Amino acid sequence: ESRDVNIRKSAFESVYSQYGQYRNTLAALYAANLKNTAFFAKKRHYNSSLEMALEGGEIPTSVYTNLIDTVHEHMDLMHRYVSLRKKALKAEELHMYDLYAPMVDEFEMKVPFSKAKEIVKKGLAPLGKEYGKVLSDGMESGWIDEGKRSGAYSWGAYGCHPFVLMNYQDNLNNVFTLAHEMGHSMHSYYSDKNQPYIYAGYRIFVAEVASTCNEALLMEYLLKNTEEKKEKMYLINYFLEQFKGTLYRQTMFAEFEKITHEMAWNKEPLTAEVLCDIYYKLNQKYFGEDIVIDKEIALEWARIPHFYTPFYVYQYATGYSAAIAISRKILSGDERAKEGYFKFLSGGSSMNPIDLLRLCNVDMAAKEPIESALKLFGELLDE
Length: 383
Prior knowledge:
Blueprint: H1 5-21, H2 23-43, H3 49-55, H4 61-73, H5 75-88, H6 113-123, H7 129-140, E1 144-145, E2 147-155, E3 163-167, H8 172-194, H9 197-200, H10 209-224, H11 229-265, H12 272-287, H13 314-331, H14 335-345, H15 353-358, H16 368-382
Parallel strand pairs: 1-3
Antiparallel strand pairs: 2-3
């Protein structure tokens, strides 16, 4: 994220030169993981490794393929984003190590914790008075320890309210973190309140929906309530980065997994050269022609630990899409979707995740939620 291009380039090349030295070992480790998964899937009479991985969460394989297919249909938006980034950075050539450099001038916005709580309450007001009261009571009655540890997370035990442990810094980024973690806590609160112990815990597939929905609602509130141009640019940049990092990047990861697991299933060779070639071509497809696809990026697969938990990362993209779709429905005044959202929050694991989201009028087996999220991405690019 350094603003100095030479530092970015040096760090990028240095990191990947180290991975390159161990490319064959890393390829052997990853290939062994793929073969292991294929072995058990075949012995248990599944049609694919994907089918076995998704069955535990009661997710049809069509949800996975639908995500990839829908993102493919809207790749032009990602290419537009890359072009915008090149223009914003005034770069003659945009490189892979430029993808995380800030696109806007530095913007400092000091937000003390007391003010952050008020901003979050206002941002989440569209969820109604009942939600607002529980949220406010939680924030003011000991749910949060804002100086506890680095990072942030929400956790708890059935029979007691959730806890948010975070290390609050007085900036806008941490206001979003507060809204995000309280989204998890509110999800846990409603599920625990309405479900017996055995059904109270929600599945990973929906775990990020409530938290991301809160962030999306807060973002819309802040964008509508600022006249400061720099602040607005900062907010739009923040939102665009989420789409790039969560929706497109995680889908690219999911596609890499799909290709490599199918190859292992068919007993095709999975050498370092083969894996690097697949990954390099995916970067070409996703990022387009306005960026130099540096040869080092071909090794990025070797440093993604999530790949050793097969078919996990796609849930970041589906969860994000579902959350954006829900927030759009709530902001449009769709009372049925809002009512369904509270049923979703209260559902725990009493229904399968796809049916829980359908309560909010969001069907992750269809293209509509992903297209709804990508429509917003396009609007932000325009703005």
